[in-house]
From TrEMBL:
Protein name: Glycosyltransferase family 2 protein
UniProt superkingdom: Bacteria
Organism: Bosea spartocytisi
Gene3D superfamilies, sorted: Spore Coat Polysaccharide Biosynthesis Protein SpsA, Chain A
SUPFAM superfamilies linked: Nucleotide-diphospho-sugar transferases
InterPro entries linked: Nucleotide-diphossugar_trans
Amino acid sequence: MIRAPGSAQAIAATFAVLIPAVAEGFLGHAVVVDTVGADGLARIADATGASYLRAGNAEGWHLGAKEARGDWLLLLDAGDVPQLNWAQAVERHLLLAPDAPALLPLRGFAASLRERAAISFGGRRLRAGLIAPKGAVLAGRLGHAPRRLQTGRERVSG
């Protein structure tokens, strides 16, 4: 799921990294949750074969999870760009800890500190970068604090 509070340019950067994982069969279906009514997002979603829905920021993850087809969901914001080997890190996590959520952390010192604080003070809330069971996303809360993966993600602005 890609929550899109930003521009079409930002979501294009995210899709550019995700499309190879779709081609490899690692990712099956994308859902674009447009939280601001940005121009061009519906067209980009359609062009990539993703589902598109319009929702407010607060209910975006929940409504996107209802639309998603898989048992596990990757939550991203438009502009999130997973780093090299992210799919292998996620696959390894799902093999070793199949019941635990994971986090593709943001890279950069300030972003990492904010994310670590969020985990410490509200570690079971939904946020971008999570790999979580669909049921947890539908419930709006993780059963366990996520495990930080060794690879991460960067955010491009757009």
